[in-house]
Amino acid sequence: MASDIRDNQETVSGSDHLISQVEHTLRLSRDHALDSVRSDGHWCGELKSNVTVTAEYIFLRQALGLDLEADRAAYCRYILSEQNCDGSWGLAPGYPGDVSTTTEAYLALKILGTSTDTPAMQRAQVFTLIAGGVARVRVFTRIFLATFGLFPWDAVPQLPVELILLPSSCPINIYTLASWARGTIAPLLIICHHRPVYALPDDYLDELWQNPTNKNVPYGSSFWELLSERDIPGLAFTVVDKLLYQLGGLRSIPLLRSYARRQCMKWILERQEPTGDWAGIFPPMHASVYAFMLEGYKLNDLPVRLGIQAIEKFAWEDEKGKRIQPCVSPVWDTALMSIGLCDAMSHDQQTLDHAITWIRNRQLLEARGDWRVYRPQLAPGGFSFEYENSHYPDVDDTAAIILAQVKHDARSVASDSVIAAATWILGMQNPDGGWAAFDVENDKLFLNKIPFSDMDSLCDTSCADITGRILEAFGLMMTHDSEKNGLSPMLRVACTRGVTYLASTQEDTGAWLGRWGCNYVYGTSHALCGLSYFVGYDERVTGLVSPALQWMKSKQNADGGWGESLLSYRSPDEQQHQQESTASQTAWALMGLLAHLSVTDAAIEHYLRRLCHDFTFRFDDVLDAAKLEGALARLMEIGDWGQMGARLRLNDDGRLEYHVPAEYTKTRPAFNFTTTEYGLRIGEHPLGSQLPKSGQDQSVLSPSPAVFAPLVRHPDSPRELADWIYSDRPQLHIHVAVFRDATLVTISYVHTLFDAIARTTGFGGREDEVPAFIPFEHDPLRTLGLDAPVKGYSNFGRVVRGVGLVVFGLRYLFELFWFREEEEHPIRLPGRCVDRLRETARKDLAAATPKGKEVPFVSEGDVVVAWWVRTMVTALNPGLDRTIMVMNVFNVWALFDEWFPTGGAGFIGNAFFYSYTLLVAGQALQDTKLGHVASRNRQALMEHRNREQVQAMTAIQRASFTRTPPVVGDANLLFMACTNQHKARYFELDFSAAVVSPGVPLSERPHALGRPSYINDIEHCRSYPTRNVVRIIGKDAAGDYWLLFKTRAGVWPAIHRQLMALLEMDK
Q: Are strands 743-750 and 611-619 parallel, antiparallel or unpaired?
């Protein structure tokens, strides 16, 4: 037992250390983000690539006679810094050396003047020759080499310019290619028509050829290989290529060719941005400059000059040297940074405001772009990845920007920007239910068999990562959408189809392939984030999520992180390619897991297990402790009540079990009962004198209930679940402290026994009134919510899910750890104050009720809750537009009389559920007469306290992986919880049969003989933090309400001031 406690303490200590590290890391990251923002409010980091982009820019400058000397050293330094130990250059970090990449890097270094005798160049030669030499390079590398006469043009596939003339209705045309391929191939048509050869010696690269005397090597599989493999598309394209070769690439049709060239150049020119960019990416920009020069343009002509300037803007230089980025990513970086800062609860609102404004100003709202070829009637509304790219908006970027805007301000869900973006995304959905990056129905995969297709990348098909992000964005929108804009029904239909797509593409392992991030970790993470909004809404989701979570957990490395090699794209058995952890892949994995699991998933226990109580009744009478013990012992002998002596155990599945002893003995009792007798009056005891009592003075806050633990608890009293499950301890421990004028009766119990407390303390000899015990093997609630539709829950549309739930959890944890000190104090609310507050609220409601309508009813409890809400909101001072979620507890015994025929009597367990009152902070503060908040609280109770709503809410809870109640509102909500225990009638508990003598004369007190005057409730929260909660203990004999407030320490002065103001007004 002692070792268990010590292990738990060490775990808590380690957890605190981890939290401290997380806080520190979060603070550093936030500071770095704020320090790196550009002056106009956006972010843009380096977009890394392999060395081919920089090498190909060097080829361009060499071909056009542009200066290379100024940056020669910087270019060389960068290229050499990327070389692998074996002399190669790879496609990406951690990827094996690639012969094409190595050849291009070698040629660029040689053009820059690097001697072939240097060790780096020698190692590159060895690697290239072992890999098959220049003969094994990809088609695009062949084209670059051919422009310098280092590869014969006849060894390059035919690319007739007439391709540009094929109409969009043709099965193969320029628009059936992916946007990135389309923008690059169009200028390549011109390059391959001209077949230029720029000045370099013919033998300039012969040292990389295995056989430099025969350079006219084939670029694809032979006819017979394709036939034997039954590759019909590849066979057809090879036949066409051979035919075009025999026809001289159609160059012998001069009128057609000249017309095609003009149309091709017109097509390219139409897509150049005013800044000189083409599609915002390097390959089409690079190739288009070649095309214009070959068509007779000069370096100073506007298209060429702007094009070269645009490429130079992609340059990035630091201590590693100078390189050219393949693209720039300001819109993407700013969107993701905004999402990150929102999730990290950044207090720099001005920075976020500027960032969101900067993004919104880049929305593409003109009817322009290749996407309109197949969606001519679709209204624009997308965003692109780069500074300038008006023709190719990006679906993934647009979804991320929706997330950024709605996370920043939930009201933006109804903004023109978000509605236009979502409408555009809806129109870009593919027939298979998924979404691609830039195009729609761009799925002609047979095009990858075209001879000039290098990496099976000529199509822009649906993918899981983009589809997942869109489901996340649409799910977040539907959470906040009031449906006034009419978009929600369309979003729901689209999301149902999106789930269908994910269901069809999930692999047997449970993972999804990721196209735009490496790889299965990325794809699975985004699919999980998107699906999290539809758990309970779509019955298929749970079956998709469960194996995905198991797969993700199985890929965690020993250091706690995740890492995945790009080799997973090459091999279907990617498990062997798990590699060292990276920050990005670990973050992706955690995003996916946290969208469905709690932050303590490794040790999930139902949250009720974490709550244990010491419930103390103060009697201003001397009670006979032996009589109390005897009455409880007799109760254990009646019917099945002896089962209360069951021991708690955890089974192999981590679930609680009741183990009932065959018999009870003195050494193995049904309950523990201890007594301490003090030979003095309670007012003479140092702690006893501070214990509140009827009519308690409120001018000074009463001590926290926990202060009295040494007085009300026995040294052996349990305080956490482990004290029960790792011992032979019965569930109940009763400790009686007897003074000369008072008695304190404390019941220590775990929260799973809660409903027993008000039902099993019948000490008075009235055995005929003891209800039948409902045995443990009978669970009245076992079928609750099994067949109920989750969408029947009135707050279903406002349930916080997915990343929103993660954000809420992080905000809540941040509150707990930023304001670590918390206090709990009892407050006595005089009955006459409650009466006056209720009367004021009723008058307020009457004044606001139209003539002839019934004035809304509010109870004393509603008014007490309303006063507590206003007091807490005033003290905590949240933003005026912040959502307040007040979670009220209610019991369901009366709702299901077929399950609880005795009104819940004799039921051991919990049968309480929740209603949610949603308010706005500003409204609560303005409601000085409490009518509005009290009425809203009553409405919520009436709305949720019925059979249908309880069934639907239970269905949602069952569908949740954590099996916890939903959070309703939005990710930025302020969580408040209220447990009104007044109906338990604790102050009416009658122990008069055990009274030995009165401690306070009956004439000097409002409560009857043997009735409690005060109740002290110590709550032990083990790894289940609670804050901003109130427990309404009940109404005492004087008519005063006793409340227990629990919140952060710093706001208690403000709470006490409001209490004193109320009392002063009453005077």
A: antiparallel
Distance, CA of 353 to CA of 347 (rounded, Å): 11
Return the number of other C-beta atoms located less than 10 Å from residue 994's C-beta. 24
Strands (E), 319-370: 321-324
Q: Do 832 and 694 fall into the same domain? A: no
**747 vs 4: which has the higher pLDDT:** 747
SS3 at position 977: strand
Segment 810-815 mean pLDDT: 77
Amino acid identity of 419?
A: I
For 670-715, the DSSP string reads: SSEEEEEE-SS-GGGSTTGGGS--TT---SSPPPPGGGGHHHHS-T
Q: What is the pLDDT of residues 311-358, one digit of tens each?
A: 999 999 999 999 999 999 999 999 999 999 988 776 678 999 999 999
User: Is residue 483 over pLDDT 90?
Assistant: no
Q: 601 and 618, same structural domain?
A: no
| Structure confidence at residue 639 (pLDDT) | 82
- Dihedral in degrees, nearest 10, Cα atoms 143, 145, 148, 152: -70
- Provide the whole-model pTM: 0.62
Sorted by sequence, the CB contacts under 8 Å of residue 495 that are 6+ apart come out as: 471, 474, 475, 478, 533, 534
Q: Is the pLDDT reported for residue 20 higher than 70?
A: no
Residues 316 and 178 in one domain: yes
Could you give the CA distance from residue 889 to residue 608 in angstroms, rounded to a whole number? 14
Distance in angstroms (rounded) separating the CA atoms of residues 1036 and 1011: 9
- Distance in angstroms (rounded) separating the CA atoms of residues 649 and 835: 47
Together in a domain, 205 and 232: yes
The partner residues of 356 in beta bridges, in order of sequence, read: none
User: Which alpha helices (H) appear in 927-1021, and where do they start and end?
Assistant: 931-944, 947-959
Mean residue pLDDT of the chain comes to 86
Q: How far, in Å, CA of 873 to CA of 920, rounded?
A: 10
Active site residues: 396
Q: How far apart are CA 503 and CA 541, in angstroms?
A: 8
- Report the CATH number that the domain containing residue 672 is assigned in CATH: 3.30.559.10
Q: H or E element: which one contains 920?
A: strand 912-920
For the chain, the residue count is: 1067
Give the confidence band of 566 by pLDDT, cuts at 50, 70, 90: confident
pLDDT grade for 228, boundaries at 50, 70 and 90: confident
Bridge partner residues of 405 (DSSP): none
- 317 found inside a domain: yes
Averaged pLDDT for residues 876-900: 86
Domain membership flag for residue 306 = yes
Which residues make beta-bridge pairs with 562?
A: 582
| Domain of 167, in residue numbers | 51-324
CA 297 to chain centre: 52
* Structural domains of the chain, count: 5
Q: Do 430 and 320 sit in the same domain of this protein? A: no
List pLDDT tens digits, range 658-702: 888 888 988 899 999 999 999 999 999 999 999 999 988 888 899
Measure the CA–CA gap between 239 and 338, rounded to whole angstroms.
52
- Pair 1032, 888: CB distance under 8 Å: no
Distance CA 745, CA 733 (A): 10
Please say if the pLDDT value at position 223 is more than 70.
no
Give the pLDDT score at 235: 64
Q: Which residues pair with 749 in a beta bridge?
A: 613
Distance of alpha carbon 411 from alpha carbon 406, whole angstroms: 7
Contact, 68 vs 58, CB < 8 A? yes
Tens digits of per-residue pLDDT, 386-401?
999 999 999 999 999 9
Residues 494 and 373 both lie in one domain: yes
Instruction: Between 28 and 961, name the one with better pLDDT.
Output: 28
Q: Is the pLDDT of residue 227 over 80?
A: no
* Phi and psi, residue 516, nearest 5°: -105, 20
| Residues 550 and 678 reside in one and the same domain | no
Q: Under 8 Å CB-to-CB from 358, ≥6 apart: which residues? A: 40, 41, 42, 334
